[in-house]
Amino acid sequence: MTGRPEVGRLSGKVALIVGSARGIGKGIAQRFAEEGAKLVLADTEVEAGQATADELGSAFIRTDISQIADAEAAVALALDRHGRLDILVQNAGIYPWQLIENTSPDDWDRVMAVNLRGTFNATLAALAPMKAQRFGRMLYTSSITGPHVTSPGHGHYAASKAGINGFIRSAALEFSGYGITVNGVEPGNILTEAIQMHRGAAYIKNMQDSIPLGRLGSPRDVANAFLFLASDDASYITGTTIIVDGGQLLPEGKDFQLLPP
User: Do residues 87 and 16 touch, judged by C-beta distance below 8 A?
Assistant: First the structure.
């Protein structure tokens, strides 16, 4: 006897995960698959997305979530393959670094199109089947950047993530009568392939030193929060977010350091 449950926490559930080719989204897909979910993966990155889908034995569709037709096609694939859609995860997002004074209206619109309109598009596409079955879990990747903190160069990104939090609360209220819960996860600094490739060891060390738990989070850390919100354990939770940041928001000042034991 191992003490592990024979049936996964998402056994029999169908999940569409948008933005699942790499990083946090891939971690969510892996964690959901471990718990028995049937997956449809969606991303703009076809090669990496298909590789993740092949690894997990799931379907994949190229999806630009800023386009409502793409969102509808992804939901249609889930319904065609599995006959229902229980869980939506909208994880797709972009975060170009630009100071506000150097941000053009087109730059601003592109971030909003993916991060905020993409959230709306995914929601609208998934709503009808979830309403019909009177059950659904709508989940979104927000961030601590925007709702709580920010840094130079993240004006559009911070605004989009703060907007997602407001949308979560509104959607949770509007959809509550259909058995649909709406929640989000706010990651702090997570050690993804992109961070390792583009930021370098000095940046990672600096981030680690600023986090009370002494390390950057992993995609699995974030995925575990999504798993909880997708599961029956969170059936009475809606309209809120879970912060997954290793205590990053806790220190009062930038000179934080742990006291010696």
Answer: yes
The residues that are catalytic are 157
Cβ 133 vs Cβ 89: under 8 Å: no
> Around 51, how many Cα atoms within 13 Å sit in the side-chain half-sphere?
8
3-class secondary-structure state, position 161: helix
Domain range summary for the chain, segments of one domain joined by +: 14-244
Beta strands in the chain (DSSP E): 14-18, 38-43, 59-62, 87-90, 136-141, 180-187, 240-244
Report pLDDT digits (tens) over 149-208.
Answer: 999 999 999 999 999 999 999 999 999 999 999 999 999 999 998 788 777 888 889 889
Tens of pLDDT along 82-118? Answer: 999 999 999 999 999 999 999 999 999 999 999 999 9
Mean pLDDT, range 60-76, rounded to an integer: 99
User: Phi first, then psi: what are they for 40, rounded to 5°?
Assistant: -125, 125
Candidate CATH numbers 3.10.20.30, 3.40.50.720, 3.30.70.260, 3.10.20.740; the one for domain 14-244: 3.40.50.720
